[in-house]
Amino acid sequence: MKLSVLDLVPVIEGGTVGQALREAALTAKAAEEAGYHRYWVAEHHGMPGIAGAAVSVVLAHVGHATQTIRLGAGGIMLPNHNPLVIAEQFGALDALYPGRIDLGLGRAPGADQRIVRALRKDVNRAAEDFPADVAELQALFAADRRLPLQATPGAGAAVALWILGSSLFGAQLAAMMGLPYAFASHFAPDHLDGALKLYRERFTPSETFDKPHVMAAINVLCAPSDEEAQYLASSQDQSFVRLRSGDPGRLPPPVLHYRDTLAPSQRATLDHFRQVSAIGSPQTVRAGLEAFQQRTGADEIIVAGATFDPALRRRSLALTMEALGGEAGQGHATAPTGDPLRAI
User: What is each CA distance from 149 to 72, 83, 144, 146, in whole angstroms?
Assistant: First the structure.
């Protein structure tokens, strides 16, 4: 079981963005030391509790604190951007941290309609152009001479491309292009099984992959006891309920028996969101991860989650790896030379 880390770079109540970024570097370093394979940051906009909007900048910062763990976007919402600019940003990251850079691509805007207006572009049209933009990015990294302009940096960069998804569309595109596929089941569990089945059935071998390669996301919070883990998880539970209520904010401190305070409709929504989770003691988390891996047949699992005290997230990562007997660290990357896809 190969494990990776998804970090939203949470900003806690009473904290600052600067503090969140410093904690992100510490978390990435802890993940590397524990044997996790990748550290990914997701693009979200207009969220007071998430400091990772400028993904490439965050990854450049985190790279200074790490040596071997792969760094990536999980992901970049490509309709928000020009492919040339993304090629330049991730080409620069590859130059700084050779053979360690992943670029997961999604077609959602990463926020509500406010981001569409703020970007001053037709994001809906850009979403329709997503497959063509992915192909353009491939050409930019490959230094395709048919392009009118080469990306500098970017041309010739060994950046590993992924397609992200929470529906069937991304599965179809990843299969058609012969790219690895990551499913966001940690917050969108409904289409998990159908998307993975579709991806595997329709996969077309490419120059970089001759068979399907799947990564699936799961919420994980590991503590010495089930009770403590559930208590700590109430911080992200509160954030999710507030988000769904239209009142997002910074990550709050945990609340004992938080679920008991919710209306039945809120509890049902939270339980639906938490479908794909492993929250509890090391034994509980191990059982949850093994069941998830058996269900999905995933080549890799990426763990999401947040705690009000960032040190307890790092403890969770260490306990999770220990619960698996260190097995997850066996596939850990060590800054490969040449084509990074060999170590994907």
Answer: 25, 12, 9, 9
Q: Which amino acid is at 82?
A: N
**pLDDT band (50, 70, 90) for residue 109:** low
Which residues are paired to 215 by β-bridges? Answer: 182, 300
CA distance 29 to 137: 29
Q: Where are the alpha helices (DSSP H) in 120-191?
A: 123-128, 130-141, 168-177
Domains, the chain, with CATH or none:
2-328 (3.20.20.30)
CA 200 to chain centre: 21
Answer yes or no: pTM beyond 0.85.
yes
Among the listed residues 85, 47, 7, the one whose alpha carbon sits nearest the alpha carbon of residue 306: 7
* SS3 assignment, position 101: strand
User: Tokens at residue 177, please?
Assistant: 């292009």
6-40 tens-digit pLDDT: 999 999 999 999 999 999 999 999 999 999 999 99
CA distance 9 to 20: 6
Say whether 257 sits in a helix, a strand or coil.
coil
Distance in angstroms (rounded) separating the CA atoms of residues 181 and 174:
6
CB of 287 within 8 A of CB of 47?
no
Rounded CA-CA distance 162/106 in Å is 9
The rounded distance, in Å, linking the Cα atoms of 232 and 307 is: 6
Q: Give the residue ranges of DSSP H helices in 245-281.
A: 264-273
Query: What are the residues facing 183 on neighbouring strands?
Result: 165, 216
CA distances from 331 to 24, 41, 202, 248, 268 (A): 22, 20, 27, 37, 37
Smallest CA-to-CA distance from 196 within 315, 129, 81, 293 is with: 293
Closest CA to 208 of 138, 309, 125, 259: 138
